[in-house]
């Protein structure tokens, strides 16, 4: 889930406009190169994993919260429970089995999620916006499988449609999925088994973190983006890598697969 789902035009490529959704999806798919088992959340994570399966990670095994594992759908699923996920899948299991044996069993390499808010250590909020539980500014769908993915996956990739101080915050309005850093601080419950959020792909650039006490660091910006603007659009004092990189623009081949093969009717690209 993301707080702002509107789209805008970012970049020119071969005479055409590359939208923010296309940019995010392509960089998200690239990040999955070399990964094997991916738990795909709804929205852009679903689109990105499908693109990765057709480009940089053809052997990737996609797992969905609905209980489908090893999915190889012939067409783009409209939801995480779309019947198109079933043909060619390795198995379809009850959700209780998925949560108990797959997610909690630490069989997921990457949990690919969205969120409404994220803090500097990678804790996520997908529950509500505002400081009044009974009367929030916005009430969101909630965790779904996100908290289980945070707890059991080896690492979490996060895609955020908008990089603003409202989405990258010093203090979450609600902690839906606590990072390993926050879980250790709380000293209660079961500690997450994995590294938590290691990659965040936004419309401005890419942030990474790996160690439990490490903050998210800006490690790449998209072409034409000023790193100082990314810092201004972050709700905490964002660290910038000394070896900051500039991302590679989407290729015509990636755009063709995304636009013409995967999502020609703009289910997710809009």
UniProtKB/TrEMBL annotation:
Similarity section: Belongs to the 3-oxoacid CoA-transferase subunit B family.
Protein name in UniProt: 3-oxoadipate--succinyl-CoA transferase subunit B
InterPro entries (alphabetical): CoA_trans_fam_I, NagB/RpiA_transferase-like
One Pfam family cited in the UniProt record for this chain: CoA_trans
Keyword terms, alphabetized: Transferase
Any GO MF annotation of the entry: CoA-transferase activity
Lineage of the species this protein comes from: Bacteria, Bacillati, Actinomycetota, Actinomycetes, Micrococcales
